[in-house]
Amino acid sequence: VNGADRWTSIGIVILLAGLFPLVGFGRAALASAVFGTWMLAGYRALDGSSDTAVTFMLLLGIVLLALAHREGEWHSGLIVDSALVCSWAILFKQFAWIVVPFLLLWLYRNKGPWKLWGGIQAALFTVVTVPFLIADPGRFLTNVLILDSHRNIWGLNVWASFQRYLGVDTMPPVGLLHLIQYAIVAAVAFYFFRKGGPLSLADAVFR
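Above: the chain's sequence. Below: its structure in token form.
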């Protein structure tokens, strides 16, 4: 896992540099330099959490999506590639899905093939996960959707900060936190859907 994270962190720098046809050499160089010298990125590339690997896959899907919309035209091959890579990221680590609603919104706002992009991800996710759901529905719901079995406080997050600075050694049920997360993402996506107006791909990613 550590080796994969190291190589994918290098891949992220290359992906950011590869955006120069769209954003120019200066911005691409700045983004690559910031990530390459960021201490947190270096920590994540060595801590064995595989967060860097899933970030690479998600960023690759976003870059392919950006390249798919050039000169006012949509390139279906890159759309399919982007959907497959983003699906892989979601199947690899659950938190990657948080970006998907905003990318779908960007495609919808720009009259892109949002049904194709979202449909491929939904189909692949269904094909891969349904056999596990059928095999043991209880364990699937507990370990995949609710994740109540993963209660250790570790890494750089809100609860680790509470533990370190406030002495709080317990946390709310993980399932409740996930429900709150789902609700917040849905509410923010709905807000920007109703708000109208142009939405760039950068806006979609950073929402």
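The mean pLDDT is 78.
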